[in-house]
Amino acid sequence: MDNQVLNFSIELGGGGSAAISDDAIEIDHSIDEDETPVMAAGGGASTSSATPTLYIPDGELDLEPYEGMEFESEEAAKAFYNSYARRVGFSTRVSSSRRSRKDGAIIQRSFVCAKQGFRNLNEKRTKEREIKRPRMITRVGCKAMLSVKIQESGKWVVTGFVKKHNHELVPLDQVHCLRSHRQISGPAKTLIDTLQAAGLGARKIMSALVKEYGGISNVGFTEVDCRNYMRLNKQRNMEGDLQLLDYLKQISSESPDFFCAVQVDDDHSRGNVFWADARARTNYTYFGDTVTFDTTFRSNKYRLPFAPFTGVNHHGQPILFGCAFLFNESEGSFEWLFNTWLAAMSGKPPVSITTDHDATIRSAIMKVFPDVRHRFCKWHIFKKCQEKLSHVLLQHPYFEADFHKCVNLPESVDEFESCWLSLLDRYNLRDNEWLQLIYSARRQWVPVYLRDAFFAEMSITQRSDSMNSYFDGYINASTSLSQFFKLYEKALDSRNEKEVKADYDTMNSAPALTTPSPMEKQVSQLYTRKIFTRFQEELVGTLTFMATKVEDNGEVITFQVSKYGEDHKAFYVRFNVLEMKATCSCQMFEFSGLLCRHVLAVFRVTNVLTLPSHYILKRWTRNAKSNVVLDDQCGSSVSGYLESLTVRYNTLRHEAFKFVDEGASSADTYDAAMAALQEAMKKVALALKKDGRGSITNGHIKDSIKDRGSRSKAHCDDGGSSNEQLSEDYMDQKIRELSEELESAHRKCEVYRANLFSVLKDIDNHKQQLAAKLHSVKLSLKDAI
Length: 785
Description:
alpha+beta
């Protein structure tokens, strides 16, 4: 076999080595408490993305070491030999090493069977230990070993390998008892932490682990290791508690508005802690409409019992509303935490709250926040899918993409239900228990069921910056409680600086406008930079949509809004002209607080030139943190949209219809109505003169009203002269014809515009195809050369 370079995945054990007592020499010289050890086949541990990965050719999973074999590093060679030892049935340790005389770096290392050599019974320390506690003889002079040496290339090559042992090897079901293979994995640590916090002892915890992993050999360590880990864990907890309380006491003395509470158990053991500083409490008064309770750090990956409350500011950035350390995760503990947090936020609950998919948290929220819309984080469920359906993902590479499309793309409940059933049938997953579980909770995480509630999200299909954890980049899987406070302060300073920078950019530079729309100019002076950019995308997007009137009951007009030729993907907008309120079937405004392109397309065709004030949420404006309702431009926006000809016309028409119905009910009401109209027309004519506009037309109308008002009821019954009736009918007909022509011309313009965009899109697609072909030709020529 030719020499191969093996990139073997390794991680140094955490906690497991400290928990194991043996007289063997340590294999791992430096151990990080929070790293997860990689165990050989059957160990069930996870690997770290930061380490090299093992590559073994197909059919060579039982590969033996041989002289000349190469490794990327010394650690990779050690991990490979330990993995080989687990398969064969013996334990390993480091025997000797050689260092360079130039720089002192290790250039050669030997790994041996743990039974290599003999115990030195003449050594004083050995004699003293034997007197106190006699131990079994474990070293029998075994010669099995692996020696590696570094090359000039930087790779490590096997220079010696002895396979034969002078003792019996351990069966596979007993390998977990060998020292070099006894390591506590990250998931096992998390389970031990949780059960220890609940008051269980080592024996009961081991029983739970055996049941969880399907046998003692799959657990990977013994009950003694578990006891040692729990003892060390208790020591670390006591130290961390003191540090946490000291930190909170210091902050409380420096800030009178600092809020802190501790929940002490009945036995006065370790309790939960919550705190919120003055900035967090103030931010909640401005942006407390939607909250995320982040329990990511209590997952298997992170071992901190840390849970922050976060929200979204006017720049779409995450902000902090308080933090907790949860050492007890019972339903009662969560109830205490939510009630305590609510008290710190002046008793005002949010509109919505987002949490991880957890039955205990859900029960507590139903009790403390019965009227708050509760949502499970969709992105956490997507991540859980990779774990729960890993076997499906291996067999069907496209399942995950189809799963995301099924959740994100449907525009109606019926469409989602149909898509879900189709997905289950396509991959034969109707009996999958986890999919049944999340389907039963679909109303709390599938977007189509949540669009009627406010969550301050800019996109349903893409995860925004605000959804990322507030502490991303600061707290990670290796963060201990003692390190936490310094990183916590750094995260706060960084987030505050980013908000200051966004405020500065918004107030000291004007965004580029892309259309001549007065609405775009108006909101550019109101929204923050980030939110304006998002609104601008929707405004520009209206150019590709057509809005067609499909129903008009005199008060509410219904429009069908769709791209040209895509009526099957239409959205429906109901527009109340009198109240200047519109609702869209996509419900983007209800979900994010920004108007969608469909409503804006309707505003365009109805001549609504500026954005009505009730569609400008203060929480998205540059004045979100001030006591000013809106800038002066907001007042101009109200007068602006009232100046719309369509609004004036429809408002007058609606009021006139009601006036006519009531005025024609009797002779007396008719006379009163006519008198009121005459008086109104006098005021209108006077207003026209003040505006400097001619009043000939209005004078004609006044004379016509006077003539009609002077007629008696009998004269009205006679119907008047035939010439007058003919003249009025002719004018009405002409008006209808001109209106139809105008509407037809408008439709043609929309078609021409849609066709133009279609042509431009085709040109762009053709351009991309040509570029791809050109790139392909270049690669072909390069390969030929």
